[in-house]
Design goal:
Layout lengths: L9 E2 L4 E7 L2 E7 L13 H20 L5 E11 L7 E11 L3 E9 L5 E12 L1
Antiparallel strand pairs: 1-2, 2-3, 3-5, 4-7, 5-6, 6-7
């Protein structure tokens, strides 16, 4: 994170949009694009993982960036619960615990109907 990311403006190749930010929390959104579907006609899990990773990483960054530090995911686990075929996907993340060198963060992804489609946990290294 090189500086503040504007809320509501698409970021990166997948066009993720930051929707909410708080101390140790972040919400990002993605508009489902059929170009990112797997052969089964559902959103590829890698896109869902990337959205969750973005939300979780940014949640940690809200706590370490002000100290002049950065974070990087060291481990991530995702459980896919339901397919996504259209609409918007929202990932909400919050830091569960942060120490001097590691942070543990969790995230959930929801579809337009509010259905929980994936959950994730991640451990982030906190770097000087």
């Amino acid at each position: 994170m090189s500086g503040p990311i504007p809320i509501g403006e698409p970021q990166g190749l997948l066009g993720f949009i930051l929707r909410e930010i708080g101390q140790g929390a972040a919400t990002w959104e993605y508009t489902v694009d059929p170009a990112h579907f797997n052969p089964n006609g559902a959103l590829h899990g890698g896109v869902t993982m990337a959205l969750l990773d973005t939300a979780m990483g940014y949640a940690v960054a809200t706590q370490v960036f002000p100290q002049g530090r950065i974070n990087a995911a060291a481990q991530m686990s995702v459980n896919f619960l339901a397919p996504v075929r259209s609409g918007k996907l929202k990932a909400q993340a919050k830091v569960l615990k942060i120490g001097k060198r590691l942070a543990v963060v969790e995230g959930q992804a929801y579809d337009d109907a509010g259905t929980l489609v994936a959950t994730a946990t991640s451990t982030h290294s906190i770097l000087p």
